[in-house]
């Protein structure tokens, strides 16, 4: 076959392909290859025809042969790209990307439009495969090409925006290089925006700031973006809110942060981050109740802020709302499980704070939960303060051996740690080894004098050690006063002061004041509430006694606050108000249905009201619960007599006289 014949055969093959006669085309090409086995065009045409005849392997082989012969010729690469783009081609995306890369190289110095088309296809392919770094780098090449061609600012702006769109999901599995390219795209998009910023630009700024807030190390860039947006949109609270939340989450509570919180609240008094910021400011100024109020309100509006939940837990701990503090720690831990991954520092802090709070609750269940929380702290075993907390949790759970082991290890490894000496003190105190407990608490106070709990326990140690230390003003009293001064929310310290003034100093008025304060701080403290009521009555201040009882009974849930219902019921009984007495004594019995004295008092109230049958039932119930209550048995007999049940009455009187021969009312009856 001569050169002329080869050319004629290739022309025939081209015409056959144009007429969709692919088999005919293959015949012509094979004839050419018999003569010239390295004929580039023949191999390309075979690839084309075989692809149309659904023979992909033969097509691929032909194109690759052509590429081997002429690696920098376009036709075979274009054919291979078309083949790989067919929907029936699977597992070829990696090969197709390589083909596109080669086509970009070949088009670069020639057809710019085709270069851009291939570039778009390559980016789309990488995007499907979630290869975000390759997406970013390839798209940047496209933008550079457009810049070199002198593209308009508006076109470049759209290209940068498209890059942001392509990379917006990349922050979930962020590698730093892709992240930086995304942030750069935002900056270029904002720089190339219209000189008169519109709503699009506003949304772009919002997205940029939101994106920056996911990068913990881009603090300076975040602050700059927020300030730039505030300068452009001075009435918008969004950038300030992000900045405030950033300060809260980073734990940076500088003057700058405080200024941000104030400025945001001036702009929008209902802003969640602003109210949270104000709450944190109150916490730092030791205004704990205001802190709890503001943080609670702020978190109702902006609840996905782990750090704010922890500040709330801290404020709740300061005012001894321990169960609420545990709930806040749990909320913080829930908020920390986010797609961005947990913030280890906050997570460790949340577990530690939760454990401290549970230890203050001081029952076995809370201790078990505290142990679990402490075990979750990463590297907690190497932290001596965490170890001391673990020792306290074991002690609360009654695991004395484990607590003692931790105590001994800490005293050897950290002899200057106040918590180590305090743990030893708690262990001695629980075993009533008061002399050793005194030494331990004194050692703890020497190292950390500002801890109210240490002074309180030293005071209790003196209280139970001996009558001398109990009565010695410089011992128990001094320590209770120091504890109350260091922690004005520590209700138990005021209760112990009340005990001292009532039982040792005989100062009922001062004791009553201490009990009232203790009860104001902790309304679940029945001992203080009862003592405050009793002393108020003794001091003739019935108004104070009733105001305490009224406050408790108004807030009480059914079946609770027995002591308050009982005290008020007895007051009504003494002051001739039997109907009110009946209602209160019934409420007391709902809390404790087995209190025989309460049943006896209820019988008395019914009797005074003239409800004889119900009074009889109440007295009988009292004597069933406690057969030693002679007065109740006598009252039952007297009522049977009034109701005309004489035989029953006689039998009941005789029952009393068997036990107590000279019980005059029964003889009379």
TrEMBL record:
Pfam families: TPR_16, TPR_19, TPR_6, TPR_8
Keywords annotated in UniProt: Coiled coil, Repeat, TPR repeat
Any one of the GO BP annotations: RNA catabolic process
GO CC field: Ski complex
TPR-type repeats, residues: 40-73, 562-595, 596-629
InterPro entries membership: Ski3/TTC37, TPR-like_helical_dom_sf, TPR_rpt
Any coiled-coil regions, as ranges: 3-39
Domain of life from the UniProt record: Eukaryota
Keyword hit for Repeat: yes
UniProt cross-references to PANTHER family, sorted A to Z: SUPERKILLER 3 PROTEIN-RELATED, SUPERKILLER COMPLEX PROTEIN 3
Protein name (database record): TTC37 protein
Organism of provenance: Leptocoma aspasia
């Amino acid at each position: 076959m001569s050169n002329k014949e080869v050319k004629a055969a290739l022309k025939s093959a081209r015409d056959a392909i144009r007429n969709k006669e692919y088999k005919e085309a293959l015949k012509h090409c094979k004839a050419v290859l018999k003569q010239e086995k390295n004929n580039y065009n023949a191999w390309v045409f075979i690839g084309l025809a075989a692809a149309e005849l659904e023979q992909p392997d033969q097509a691929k082989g032909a194109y690759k042969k052509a590429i081997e012969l002429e690696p920098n010729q376009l036709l075979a690469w274009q054919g291979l790209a078309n083949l790989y783009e067919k929907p029936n081609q699977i597992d070829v995306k990696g090969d197709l990307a390589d083909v596109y890369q080669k086509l970009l190289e070949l088009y670069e110095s020639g057809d710019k439009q085709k270069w851009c088309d291939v570039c778009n296809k390559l980016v789309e392919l990488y995007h499907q495969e979630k290869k975000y770094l390759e997406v970013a780098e390839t798209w940047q090449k496209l933008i550079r090409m457009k810049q070199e061609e002198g593209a308009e600012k508006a076109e470049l702006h759209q290209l940068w925006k498209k890059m942001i769109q392509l990379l917006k999901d990349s922050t979930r599995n962020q590698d730093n290089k892709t992240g930086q390219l995304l942030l750069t795209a935002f900056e270029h998009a904002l720089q190339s925006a219209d000189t008169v910023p519109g709503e699009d630009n506003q949304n772009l700024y919002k997205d940029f700031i939101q994106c920056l807030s996911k990068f913990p190390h881009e603090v300076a860039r975040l602050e700059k973006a927020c300030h730039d947006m505030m300068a452009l949109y001075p009435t918008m609270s969004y950038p300030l809110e992000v900045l405030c939340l950033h300060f809260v989450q980073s734990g940076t509570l500088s003057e700058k942060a405080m200024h941000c919180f104030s400025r945001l609240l001036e702009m929008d008094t209902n802003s969640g981050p602003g109210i949270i910021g104000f709450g944190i400011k109150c916490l730092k100024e030791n205004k704990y109740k205001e802190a709890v109020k503001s943080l609670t309100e702020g978190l109702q509006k902006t609840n996905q802020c782990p750090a704010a939940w922890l500040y709330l837990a801290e404020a709740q701990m300061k005012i001894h709302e321990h169960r609420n503090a545990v709930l806040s720690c749990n909320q913080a831990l829930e908020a920390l499980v986010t797609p961005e991954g947990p913030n280890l520092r906050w997570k460790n802090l949340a577990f530690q704070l939760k454990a401290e709070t549970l230890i203050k609750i001081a029952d076995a269940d809370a201790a078990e939960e505290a142990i679990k929380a402490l075990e979750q702290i990463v590297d907690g075993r190497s932290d001596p303060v965490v170890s001391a907390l673990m020792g306290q949790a074991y002690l609360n759970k009654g695991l004395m051996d484990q607590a003692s082991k931790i105590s001994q290890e800490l005293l050897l490894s950290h002899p200057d740690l106040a918590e180590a000496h305090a743990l030893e003190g708690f262990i001695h105190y629980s075993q009533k080894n008061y002399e050793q407990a005194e030494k331990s608490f004194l050692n703890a106070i020497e190292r950390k004098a500002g801890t109210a709990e240490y002074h309180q326990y030293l005071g209790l140690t003196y209280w139970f050690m001996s009558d001398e230390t109990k009565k010695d003003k410089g011992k128990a009293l001094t320590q209770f006063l120091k504890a109350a001064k260091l922690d004005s929310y520590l209700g138990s310290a005021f209760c112990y002061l009340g005990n001292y003034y009532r039982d040792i100093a005989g100062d009922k008025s001062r004791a009553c004041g201490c009990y009232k304060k203790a009860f104001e701080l902790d309304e679940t403290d029945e001992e203080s509430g009862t003592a405050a009521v009793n002393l108020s009555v003794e001091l003739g201040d019935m108004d104070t006694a009733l105001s305490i009882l009224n406050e408790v009974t108004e807030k009480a849930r059914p079946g609770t606050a027995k002591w308050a219902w009982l005290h008020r019921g007895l007051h009504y009984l003494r002051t001739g108000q039997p109907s009110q007495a009946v209602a209160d004594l019934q409420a007391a019995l709902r809390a404790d249905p087995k209190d025989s004295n309460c049943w006896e008092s209820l019988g008395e109230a019914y009797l005074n009201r003239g409800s004889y049958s119900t009074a009889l039932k109440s007295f009988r119930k009292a004597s069933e619960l406690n057969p030693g209550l002679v007065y109740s048995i006598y009252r039952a007999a007297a009522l049977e007599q009034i109701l005309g049940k004489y035989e029953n009455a006689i039998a009941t009187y005789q029952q009393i006289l068997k036990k107590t021969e000279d019980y005059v009312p029964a003889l009379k009856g």
